Amino acid sequence: MLRLALIGGRLAASQLACCARQAATALGEKPGRLMLAQALVLPTALATWWAIPQVTWVMSPSIDAWAVRARPGTIRRGDLVSFMLSHPLAGPLPVSVTKYALCMPGDRLVMIERPSATTGARYGRFYCNGSLIAVSKPHGRAGQRLTSYRPADGVVPEGTIFVGSRHADGFDSRYYGPVLIERLTRMERVL
Q: Which of 90, 115, 128, 132 can pair with 103 through a Cys bridge, CB separation 3.0 to 4.6 Å?
């Protein structure tokens, strides 16, 4: 998906570079037509240049949004949040991830391990205030070993939020624990 976005961006940039001349050619060969084309194309290009950094593209199938943008306000349960994740399984450099706020500070958070019916491996079932919010797996899609987060005292610590999604292969607080609120940015869905 990231590759597709990069290819699309390169194509759009190359087309935008010659767009004014093409528009003028399509309108005729009079010199005034080039000025008219530039008057139409340049404001569109400037608006696009301003708007694109305002939007974050979500490249994860675990979130039901393709694009999000920052939204001021207090983070509430169910809100989309974005943050930089540093974890060996995420790669050598920090990556921007978008998740849902699932369990808030002070909420009861319990993880119950259960064996798989087929493999005997243990899965962690996470409950927030008695409601199932996520299930951790012992191994990732590529076969790497995953270690489930184990809540210490059954409560989400103050100043942190348990983030994640309902996607079975999501990599989230099921594995790295709650995230500090100061690292989170509240987001809203654009697309």
A: 128
pTM for this prediction: 0.75
Residue recorded with tokens 């675990």: 62
Q: Tell me which residue of 86, 90, 80, 95 sits closest to 146, measured CA to CA.
A: 90
Alpha-carbon gap, residue 113 to 135, rounded angstroms: 9
Contact between 157 and 149 under an 8 Å Cβ cutoff? The reply is no
Question: Domain spans of the chain?
Answer: 2-54, 62-189
Q: Is the pLDDT of residue 101 over 90?
A: yes
Confidence band of 93 (pLDDT split at 50, 70, 90): very high
CATH architecture of 62-189: Ribbon (2.10)
